[in-house]
Structure formats: structure tokens, C-alpha cells
Amino acid sequence: xxxxxxxxxxxxxxxxxxxxxxxxxxxxxxxxxxxxxxxxxxxxxxxxxxxxxxxxxxxxxxxxxxxxxxxxxxxxxxxxxxxxxxxxxxxxxxxxxxxxxxxxxxxxxxxxxxxxxxxxxxxxxxxxxxxxxxxxxxxxxxxxxxxxxxxxxxxxxxxxxxxxxxxxxxxxxxxxxxxxxxxxxxxxxxxxxxxxxxxxxxxxxxxxxxxxxxxxxxxxxxxxxxxxxxxxxxxxxxxxxxxxxxxxxxxxxxxxxxxxxxxxxxxxxxxxxxxxxxxxxxxxxxxxxxxxxxxxxxxxxxxxxxxxxxxxxxxxxxxxxxxxxxxxxxxxxxxxxxxxxxxxxxxxxxxxxxxxxxxxxx
Length: 362
What we know:
It contains twelve helices and eight strands. The protein has about 350 residues and is of the alpha+beta class.
């Protein structure tokens, strides 16, 4: 699926104004209202981090940098156009709605990094610290939330009512395309534009994973830095062998993972990696994982990350993709696609009437 909000992605080339030299830290102007360079940089960084986390291969593309720049500016321009339209239509945000929006954001600070609840005082302090880090006052934050709620209301009142639910034929036709895409049949892509092809391929990959053979694993990692000297690798291997002996002697895998694994994230969950599909793991680790029996602990297995001791918790056989199991997801997907097209049409209309200037600030 597209990581950034593709519903708002419009081509900058459609702007009627040529680029000009940046003045006073302004990256662009929309109907005379400024988009600051600092806003652009923060947005671009947020999108970059999304891709690093979810689609790192995208960043290997030759034009990835240019695409990130375009996505960031598109997002800011479109958000500002929608905000200006909401203000023009005098869409009202009531105080109780604003308080609810603020509370919704503050709720994110009610737990610490480990997911444990914190006191209201600590939550409020963490929230205030975040505002300070961003250089935003409480009043500015509330105004930002008010504008976001105005845009949400605009979309719900002007665009959402135009979106009809997909009918049975649409759902079954798309299911057929998914089946063809899973098999690699390019005929499924006929007549589709680039974005729709990207979406279909992503959906097909998701269904392929959901129906594929999978295993649920725990692991204990003895980490070795890439390029480490042989003596260091041997030392790590000896430690892994010693840990395996402790397991063989009856120590609990989850407790040992929590104490000894160098993978801190999974260690907090007793070494749990969740369900893993073929193609997700380094080859030696995958080969070991898919050949084990449920309840087995593996001998140490080497990977580019170090030495792994695996425990197989569950194994599921490959499943057939069935229409009834996929129906709800496909209906939601098609509804979202229809909404995307309507929102794009609406934004195109706003953009045609807007005065948009882009400044050269690089």
C-alpha cells in the first residue's frame, strides 16, 4: 500500500506559477499563505522515516530523493488548500470537539516507551516537553488541532457523501484480479494506471503472505558486528553454544531470551518474533526455522547479525485464498479507492482556482 497519503498526491507541475527565489524561509505560497521551509523539511523527514520503516527498498530507487521532495510539498500544499476551503465555508469547530481532539493527541503520552501507564502528571509533562521540542506553544497547538478538525469536517460533509459502497460485481472482479496478480499473470493489470497497479500488487503480496506457510518463532540473538574479526565471531559462537546447553538442561526459553538476547525488542517479549513467512529471514535462519518441529530449540544458526537460537512455537500450512475470507478487506479497499478519486477531483478543482508559488530554496 502507499505509505504517504496518496489521496492527496497531486502533481506540482500543474501549478500556474514558476519557481522563484526563496524569501524569509518560505518554501511556497498558496493563495498568499506561506509554507515554511522548516515545515517542508519536517514533513519530508517524516515521510522518509515511514519509508525506512515500511518500504526500505523504495529508497534504493534512483529518483527516490526527488519523489520524497515531491510527496512532502504535495502534502503541505494540499493540506493548506483544504484548510483554506474549510475556512472559506466557515466550517465550525465547537469547543467540545476541540477539547476532544486535544485529548486524543494527549492520550499518546499516557504510556511510557515500554507501554506501561504513567501518572497524569507525567503524561502532561511529556506532552509539554514535546511541544517545547517542536517550538510550539499550547495556543498554537490548539489552533493546529482546530484546523485539522475543520478539514476533517469538510471531507465528511463535502466528499464522503459522494462515495458509494462497492457492489458485488466490483468486489468479485477485484478478487479475480488479486488471484491473477498472486499467480503473476500480467493480464490482471490491463487497463489500470500506475497507482492502481502499485496498489493491486501490494494487495496481492499481502494476500500471498496471509495464505502462505508460516511459522511463529522465538529467538535468542548473540550479536556479532558485520566484519568482526574471527576471534570475536568464535567468542559469540561459544556463548550461543553455552546458552543452548542451558536450554537443554531445562531453563525456560522465554526467561533466558529476556535476560541474554541481544535483540532488545524481542527480548522484552521473551524472544517472540511473531509469525514469519518464507522470504523474510536470512537464508540459514529460514532453512532451520521451516525444518523444525513445534517445541524444538535449534542449535545456534549463523546469520549476518550473529548467532541465533530458535524456538518453533507454531507452524501453519499454506492456505487457499477464498473469496468469503477476503470479501470484507476488498470492500474496504475499493471504498477507500473511490474516496481517493473523489478527494483528488475535489483537490484538483481547488488547485485550478488557486494561486500557488514555489520558491527555490535548495
